[in-house]
Amino acid sequence: MSASETRHVIDGPTGPLELKHLHAEGEPRFLAVVCHPHPLHGGTMENKVVYTLSRLLSGLGGEVVRFNFRGVGKSAGEFEQGIGETQDLQAASKWLREQFPQIKPFWLAGFSFGAFVSTISAKELNAEQLISIAPAVTRFDFSQHPMPECPWTIVMGDADEVVDPKTVFEWAETLPDNARLIKMDGAGHFFHGRLVELREKLEAVLPKGD
């Protein structure tokens, strides 16, 4: 049975913040927030990779929020190079935690620019799982921020036309043991025609029970 989804506009750091809440399929066991790609290049919470991640996490028992960063959709404000957007993520996370105070485990996920925002926020938000899809390491400096200490799954296509795959693979080799890299042969940045495979690869490695 498909999980239900509701739309909300909450108070964000620069005004209204638009989000969608996808309920867990079955018994909720964790909370999750998913971050979308670059706002100035068409990124929104309706992105297909973001939607795929949200459905996956809902199926694993997550109460899942995806949201529009400032300046996107009905979210107020202007793009702030990822730093202001971490405040948007904090607001969305706070709202979700307030809805389900009894559920403590917290997961983060992000795609491209959203992977940058979620990665640099993971430690402060006490994330217990982090998922980074095609992280934009060629466009944003991850090294200037605390790196996550939780289990961290990175997925990267070797035919990515937006973020250089070789740079990501080399960067991943420098990360500590809590990070694991999944390479998808022939997959481009937006995983066209590969979303089912992306979901299956993540399902195979993410925890499915308490």
UniProtKB/TrEMBL annotation:
GO molecular function, one term: hydrolase activity
InterPro entries associated with the record: AB_hydrolase_fold, Xaa-Pro-like_dom
Domain of life: Bacteria
Coiled-coil features, chain-numbered ranges: none
One family name in Pfam for this protein: Peptidase_S15
Domain Xaa-Pro dipeptidyl-peptidase-like: 64-145
Name of protein: Xaa-Pro dipeptidyl-peptidase-like domain-containing protein
